Amino acid sequence: MDKHYDWCSNCGKNKSDLPWAIYSIKNHMIKLSGYYLKIGCCDINYPCCCIDDNDCCECCLYSWSLQISNDNKTWKTIHKVEKDSEMRRCKDKTYKFSETYNTKYVRLIQDESCPGDPPCIALNKIELIGSIENEDGLIFEDQENEEDDVSIIGHISKNKM
């Protein structure tokens, strides 16, 4: 059985329907120092961002923001990418921050879709780089197998940059 790991948001009906994904680890704070993204739609035979059975888009992230929040209501943008037309179909990049951010929630939100495409996010993998702490501020050490996934497409990496 073939496995396909892409996660795709619904396609927006208009340009203001901006898709997003929120990540958190229950009862833990994230000390975020960067992130890795791998765009979905890696297998051309299995389209990902489809409006209907016959109309699919390019799976291009294009313009997006990475945001943080401690209450899942008020968001602060800590990284923004604009008009990166290379971030499509299995392309990946790592982004490193000049400072570390302490947060409970991390949100990836598309700010603008590829020209001609509806708003849609297709991800194969997102890796939040940094460490995690419990509510008492103690650093949580990852288990022996660092490749254990936190969610279907997310992973917290303790690798140093």
Describe this structure in words.
- It comes from Trichomonas vaginalis (strain ATCC PRA-98 / G3).
- InterPro entries: Galactose-bd-like_sf.
- This is F5/8 type C domain-containing protein.
- This protein has about 160 residues and is mostly beta strands.
- The chain has one domain: Galactose-binding domain-like (Jelly Rolls).
- About 0% of the residues lie in helices and about 50% in strands.
- The chain is built from no helices and ten strands.
- The strands form two sheets. Strands 1, 3, 6, 8, 9 and 10 form a six-stranded mixed sheet that branches. Strands 2-7-4-5 form a four-stranded antiparallel sheet, with no helix packed on it.
- A hairpin with a 4-residue loop joins strand 8 and strand 9.
- It is elongated.
- The C terminus is likely disordered.
Q: What tags apply to this protein structure?
A:
about 160 residues, mainly beta, Jelly Rolls, six-stranded mixed β-sheet, four-stranded antiparallel β-sheet, 10 strands, elongated
- At the first level of CATH, the class is Mainly Beta
From the N-terminal CA to the C-terminal CA, the straight-line distance is 36 Å
Q: Overall pLDDT, averaged?
A: 78
Structural class: mainly beta
The poorly predicted ranges are 143-161
Q: H/E series, N to C?
A: EEEEEEEEEE
Number of helices: 0
Oligomer: single chain
Provide the number of structural domains.
1
The coarse silhouette is: elongated
Name of the CATH architecture: Sandwich
CATH topology: Jelly Rolls
**Rg calculated over all Cα atoms:** 16 Å
Helix coverage percent: under 10%
Organism: Trichomonas vaginalis (strain ATCC PRA-98 / G3)
Protein name: F5/8 type C domain-containing protein
